[in-house]
Amino acid sequence: MNKITLKLGLWFFFVMMMIEVCLFFVLHTGLVESRVEEELSALLARGNSHREVLEDLYNTETLHHIALMELKADTEVIITDGKQNIIISSSKVDNGEKKIVSKKLENVPRDGKILERRWKNEKYISTVSPYSVNGHQNGYVYMFKSTDQVQRLISKLNQHFLLAAAVTIILLIVTILFLSRALTTPLIQMKRATEKLSKGNFSVQLPDRGEDELGELSRSITILAQDLKHLKEQRNDFLSSISHELRTPLTYIKGYADVARRRNIADKDRERYLDIIYEESEKLSNMMKDLFDLAKMDQNTFVIHQEKVQICFYLRGICEKMMPAFKEKDINLEINCNENMYVLIDPMRFEQVFLNLFDNAIKYSDPHTKTSVLVKREKENVLIEVKDEGRGIPGEDIPFIFERLYRVDKSRSRDFGGTGLGLSIAKELVEAHQGRIEVKSGLGKGSTFLILIEEMTE
Fold this sequence. Notes:
kinase, Heat Shock Protein 90, HisK_dim/P_sf, EC 2.7.13.3, rod-shaped, Helix Hairpins, Beta-Lactamase, transferase, ATP binding
């Protein structure tokens, strides 16, 4: 048996046993007291019945008849006069009965009263009923019942209780075993699942256990395993991509450096090779900067300093800064923003978002095309659309376009080779401003990036 099953079982058993003992004690005490009261009530009623007979017809024959009746019963009777002198009894009077008869009686009600009820310590329980005949003859009818009979009755009751207790305990043990296993089995499965997770085995699939807390915990562990598996795969892909991305420029740098070091090479060729080395060094430097920014975002050490910015004026400034790059490739850059709208952003960080989007538009658009920026209100938000007429993104690549080091161009050619981190950084930055970025695209149809950010009221 597992430790948790044993602990839960013992705990349930202890609690239920305490409850059962208390209930049995209260029930047993109540039943015993009730049964004794019934015996005393019956004894008093019998005495009152004899009194009625005596008052109707008081004579020696009646007295003997009453005594004879009790002789054959499991009770005894003693009839006395008004001074408590015994007139007749159904059996030989012993000391216990004498002791009770000798008790001084005062103001005994007509319906009689109980003289002795201590069935545990005394030999008899007893009642007394007064009688009066024509105002001349007064006396008392004493009724007795041996406590041995009461004790035998209580003993039988105790046997029934013990049997009921034994059956209850057996059923309790069976129920506790079933319930503890029903509770602990899923917990043990979850424990084993978490042990697998801690050892790096993420192939964990727990069964659905309904809508209760155990079911929610089971689903949470399954989701955690899937997320960890996805993260592991992403990490492996990330490390593989990083090693490739770093190896490519380093290979160019090393290769062209070796060639440039040759003495018999023309100065023109050496200069061209040095330009390539410089270009690849710049790419390597940019990649390291991007990776450093992403690492700071992951560690929540990436600080943004937000301020109120007039978005149209702000975007026109960025477009003017990027205009020479667009003109160099003969791409027309337009901005359509005429409304007075304000947003709360970090100007320097948010500029990086648009520089990345414009850089992609330049790389993947042909000459004589157009890239447009449209800004408009959408409910309580500002919607910024950056649309190009470039090559577009295949549908199967769109869900992964914001993942780190993911590139649509799998060839990683030098003509279109970026770090593969620009869109990831853009997404992180937009979300750091409590915004949202999406993309709509199709192969050969260009791409439209949508940025939604909350508008500030003046």
